Amino acid sequence: MPKTTGLTRDQLRRLRDAFAGEIVTPRDDGYDEARRLWNAMHDRRPAVVVRPGTSSEVATAIRFAREHDLELAVRSGGHSASGHSGTDGGLVVDLSRMRGVAVDPSARTARANGGALLGELDVAAQAHGLVCPIGVIGHTGVAGLTLGGGVGRLQRRFGLTIDNLRAVELVTADGRLVRASETEEPELFWGIRGAGWNFGIVTAFELGLHPFGPELHRGVRIYPASAARAVWEVFREYAADAPDRVSMIYSIAPGAHGADASASAAGEPVVLVSFNHSGRADEVERDTAGLRQGPEPVSVTAVSQPYLEAQTAHDLVLGWGRRFFIAGLYANDVRPEAIDELVEHAASAPADGSFSVTAQGGAIARVDEDAMAFAGRAARFDLSADARWDDPADDDRYRAWVRRAMEVVEPEAIEGRYVNENADAGPAETRAIYGDAKVARLARLKRAWDPDNVFRLNHNVAPAGDDHSG
Ligand SMILES: Cc1cc2nc3c(=O)[nH]c(=O)nc-3n(C[C@H](O)[C@H](O)[C@H](O)COP(=O)(O)OP(=O)(O)OC[C@H]3O[C@@H](n4cnc5c(N)ncnc54)[C@H](O)[C@@H]3O)c2cc1C
Question: What is the CATH number of the domain that holds 89?
């Protein structure tokens, strides 16, 4: 086991003098739990983990890290695919003591603290018959998801999570508490919505809510791999003018993929088409008729269930402790030959691996591309591949599997990538995610708010950028 470099006795004394929150060092019993990340690929050993309870404690932690030249990691839900919420030898600001969501039903807004989890926001909003469009797993952090964009079951109807973000409060690199919204520090607010981790530690999110629920209507149709091309044709036609209240995903997965085993002869890959319908029960049949065209499925399931049940249905399956890799890109179509190749490629996927096409459009596409740092709104589809496994010996194999799936569809890539579904991180990835013009604008913001790149454990925008525009 690698040795962990801790703080010196003197440093620790100074931290205890200055910081009123919890402090966990490698000598403490809770250290292994405190340093653990959702993705077991990232086994980080920080010198210290601090748990602030207030914005001013967050500021103290930032100052301490800077004064002692400690790499600073920020952690809310701990779900970063890249392991960005951990550090070797640095200081982790763990926001788990800053959970909690308060809803104002008359204003239809929620205030989520910086360490809140999605499940808290869902429960608090649904208690008033309201909802914020967020992600699909309850234990994901509101912070990491929102600062990157926020996609899920209701976005075609209500927009991305950032489209519903009214304001944030954040502690900046120089320890100031700043409020950003459309009218307060609007340029910073532009950058927060898509590249938010670069500018500070967000201690509160103010989000707009919509009347909704309590039921969500869902369906899954499973087809044999031989139908992959024909089903894709049906899917892409349907997605072109589907109602906003329907979200839909086309996936190619190995046969054992939680699907009805009878769908795949002798381990053959399968094709899954799943939808979520957020309207009335009596609209579902008519609204999804287009998805029922084409080949006969081997299995069909449909259910109407409480939204909160849907939002936690996969919380255990996608629980902590497994190894994970993901990559994605935006496209307006997928060539039939690519579908064939992906079917072939699925045969060597891990049992929990798949290639997916998520339809965008609806409210996502109605926001102007330049309105926020988030890039790729006009794309018709989000293409991604992901894999989960347990044995470290499989790391190279399954990362290569995901990357190969993306190579197959690279010819259809258009500008932009969804930052939260790309585990690889570096200057080239940042450029692919935001595009050159947005990287230049973000680099200017970074120079204004974090010139020393204190917040660099993320899909980082370097202050120098490659921005020669001044
Ligand atoms: C099981 C699972 C399901 C997912 N489902 C969805 C989904 O449905 N929709 C979707 O859009 N994405 C989804 N994601 C991706 C998810 O949005 C990102 O992994 C996101 O970064 C997780 O946020 P977190 O707070 O849990 O992560 P963390 O690992 O805690 O943080 C992620 C990044 O945000 C920074 N950060 C964290 N908190 C703050 C803060 N308060 N202020 C500033 N920076 C901060 C960290 O430094 C790090 O760079 C999913 C990921 C997983 C693992």
Answer: 3.30.43.10
